[in-house]
Write a structure and sequence with these properties.
single chain; 16 helices
Length: about 425
């Protein structure tokens, strides 16, 4: 009698060191894991970015400045970056699946709690806690995939996960704006939290337990420090981390300041029209999943380089004064960025030597620090010479990312 595709009763504690039993493409377990990770990406990013369209409302509701209102997002992303590093260490003892489940449930419940925040400061505290909770997903999800998925199908599954993050980032912004327009902001956040809770429960029901993970009881700071330093000493991985920093910095810079350009003459878009720009994240889903599939077939570095070049081409296209060309440029750069991100994040799992959770946490740390630091730095260029300066700054970052990818490809020859 043939063995089932996945022995569901095996727990994370019973994984046998040295013996690998991967989830292979075409099996029910592989499909369930892929869908579960899509739900985790969707939930994480919809809950993280749901407040972005509410910033003007917060400013008016709580009598705070626009800069202060942005703390409801920046505090979450800042604490998320810190939590990602801690999550890698915690998951070694708690387990990948357990930590992701707790994180998704906690973040969804905190979003629901935000809807009932009586004052501004408590709202900020809840959003900061939400960032800490969400840190248990991104790095650990990548580690789970690298450990459990057959390397021949890893690119496709990683692409689906990144596609989920794109869909979540879009949905969190668009749905919250629609709900807030018709119901007000508190019911909007409650509904987004409820959707996130449903996604978390779906994740828990679908994701197979780990079979290649070996739990490390207790907490050994020296072990974790050695693991992080070991990945930084890997000749290839620092270049992949640099790509995460530069590519995400480029992407966020364009999205941060495109709105300033599009509400000004000659475009004069209103807030509703501007919000619809986020629907181009759908092309990011396509770019991530397509990039992963093609990377499994023709080579991951080839697709990574193509994705970065596509991002740069789309960025350059936004220099056009014609609105259709501007929108097309945003579509192209979005598809290219998510293609690059899905490939680069998958390469971390392929190239890391053990402790993949620690390697993934360094990648995600670089990713979010790039978002925060370079996304803000783009404002200096906007103040100097408007959109042309922003595009120049972004293209320089993408050029450096392309050079980093070439260096990584040369050093990793035969390894990925």
């Amino acid at each position: 009698m043939p063995k089932p595709a996945y022995a569901a009763k095996r727990s994370e504690e019973t994984a046998i060191p040295g013996r690998r039993s991967y989830l292979t493409r075409g099996t029910g377990a592989y499909r369930r894991a892929s869908l579960a990770l899509f739900l985790s990406g969707f939930s994480t990013f919809s809950l993280l970015y749901c407040v972005q369209p509410l910033l003007p409302i917060f400013s008016q509701e709580f009598s705070v400045s626009p800069a202060e209102s942005s703390l409801s997002l920046s505090l979450s992303t800042g604490f998320l970056a810190v939590a990602i590093i801690c999550a890698a260490a915690v998951s070694e003892g708690l387990g990948r699946r357990s930590l992701m489940s707790i994180s998704l449930l906690g973040a969804a419940l905190l979003t629901i709690a935000t809807a009932f925040a009586p004052n501004w400061h408590l709202l900020l505290v809840i959003r900061a806690l939400q960032g800490l909770a969400l840190g248990g997903v991104p790095a650990v999800a990548m580690a789970y995939l690298a450990e459990e998925i057959d390397p021949r199908g890893l690119g496709a599954t990683m692409g689906l996960y990144v596609g989920g993050t794109a869909f979540g980032g879009m949905s969190g912004r668009v749905l919250t704006g629609i709900f807030a327009e018709y119901l007000s902001w508190r019911p909007a956040l409650f509904l987004i939290g409820a959707i996130g809770l449903a996604a978390a429960l779906g994740f828990i029901a679908l994701l197979p337990p780990s079979r290649n993970f070996v739990r490390r009881p207790g907490f050994d700071p020296r072990f974790h420090a050695k693991a992080w330093l070991g990945h930084l000493a890997n000749p290839v991985l620092p270049f992949i981390f640099a790509i995460a920093f530069l590519a995400m910095g480029s992407f966020v810079t364009i999205y941060n300041y495109a709105g300033f350009r599009l509400v000004a003459p000659p475009y004069g878009l209103n807030q509703t029209e501007l919000g619809l720009i986020f629907t181009v994240y759908l092309f990011g889903i396509g770019g991530a999943s397509t990039g992963g599939l093609i990377g499994d077939r023709i080579g991951h570095f080839s697709v990574l380089l193509f994705g970065l070049a596509l991002t740069a081409a789309g960025t350059a296209l936004t220099l056009s004064v014609a609105l259709p060309s501007m929108i097309l440029g945003i579509i192209v750069l979005t598809a290219g960025f998510f293609m690059s991100h899905s490939i680069a994040s998958g390469l971390v799992g392929r190239l890391a030597h053990g402790t993949k959770g620690h390697a993934s946490s360094l990648y995600m740390l670089a990713y979010y620090v790039g978002s925060s630091v370079m996304g803000s730095a783009g404002g200096w260029f906007w103040a100097i010479d408007g959109w042309a300066a922003v595009v120049t700054f972004t293209l320089v970052m993408l050029t450096l990312a392309f050079i980093s990818a070439c260096a990584a490809q040369r050093l990793a020859r035969g390894k990925a």
